[in-house]
Amino acid sequence: MGLDDQTTGARFEAAVLPHLDAAYNxxxxxxxxxxxxxDVVQEAYLRALKFFGSFRxxxxxxxxxxxxxxxxxxxxxxxxxxDLHDSFDEDIHSPSLDRPAGSMGSxxxxxxxxxxxxxxxxxxxxxxxxxxxxxREALVLRELEGLSYKEIASITAVPIGTVMSRLARARKxxxxxxxxxxxxx
Amino acid sequence: xDCTRASELLHGYLDNELDAMHVEEVETxxxxxxxxREEREQQLKLRSLLQAQATRYAAPAHLHRQILTSVCAxxxxxxxxxxxxxxxxxxxxxxxxxVLLTSTITYYSVVASNADRVVDEVVAAHVRSLVTNRLTxxxxxxxxxxxxxxxxxxxxxxxxxxLTEQGFPLAGGRLDYVDGRPIAALLYRHxxxxxxxxxxxxxxxxxxxxRRFSRRGYAxxxxxxxxxRFYVVSDIAGPELHQFVTLLQGEKTPG
Lengths: 185, 255
What we know:
The complex is a heterodimer.
Chain A: H1 2-16, H2 20-31, H3 34-50, H4 60-92, H5 111-115, H6 121-129, H7 133-144, H8 149-156, H9 160-178
Chain B: H1 3-14, H2 20-32, H3 34-53, H4 61-78, H5 86-95, H6 98-131, E1 138-139, H7 143-149, E2 170-178, E3 181-190, E4 193-201, E5 208-215, E6 218-225, E7 228-234, H8 238-249
Antiparallel strand pairs in B: 1-2, 2-3, 3-4, 4-7, 5-6, 6-7
Helix pairs in contact in B: 1-2, 1-3, 5-6
């Protein structure tokens, strides 16, 4: 029993720990918040350990990224619900008094203003951060992690065709926001 | 093929994800459609911009440690172990009355499980460095490069020996984290195998004899000398590891 558990621990470490950077990068882009990303990734790794018995070997990266991705979407849903609740409260009660200042304002900046930003890393980051999360994750997994459509499909639980159409739409939207024009190059 | 369909397939085409038939369809369309060719150029620019400029965030080091710690903690909760070496049990039984025996067991199981945890941690640190391919922070076979690298990184001066001539070239050093503190780790190579040497100040300050055993299939040697605690972890065979340890210990600390 003890030996089994130790082997499980070593297998777990070997299968998923090398992908911590990929996991964090995905969570960081999806939550758009450094601290939330850390919490979500830690939570996801604990979930992964708990359900490691269901891991049948094979692609540890796709497996852990799927868990991280689901944890991120849970977090996003929860936060959306909180945001709705907060704005409801504000409508009824005194406006904007007890809302923490600048909690999420900077990253969720006005989409229109960033469309005008130039194609710098910052402008690019802002434009990417404002895509819908499903588009954002497809782009991050493809362009930053270099994953195949098949891997992205298994992580995000959609057909391969959907991966392609999401990437197509994501890139078109991103392009629109960045207003890539020939004279900038 | 119309442009709407082509502009979607274009992405599969640029990502090398289309089958031969669709590749041909897209290429045929591109050959005749100026606006789709223009779109292809734009997409290529966007891709190189993304790959060059978009931040790939790396996990902070403390997150790595937190996850390891919580993984270890979760595992300990799953398998509470009070490991008592048989030698101590027999020693205690022959020596003491039942009451004394009980307290002896309690005492040694606390000490033993702590030592046990440290052994788990050094083995995990060795395995982790190999699977994450983070073998060294300072990569050098020169002891005079590796030793000063630890200045200001750990609060002791780790002894670094050159054992190249004896068949154990130094690969480098790195910082690791064991028993709740930063420690020095040296990495030696022997043929195709890696040997990790972990060291940190020994709280008790007593020299202890060399102890050899195995854990998770790795051969481990531990001892204390000159105020430092040493753990050597490797997958190489006993006699060779024995030779390495003897070389490392030099004239001091007979096994």
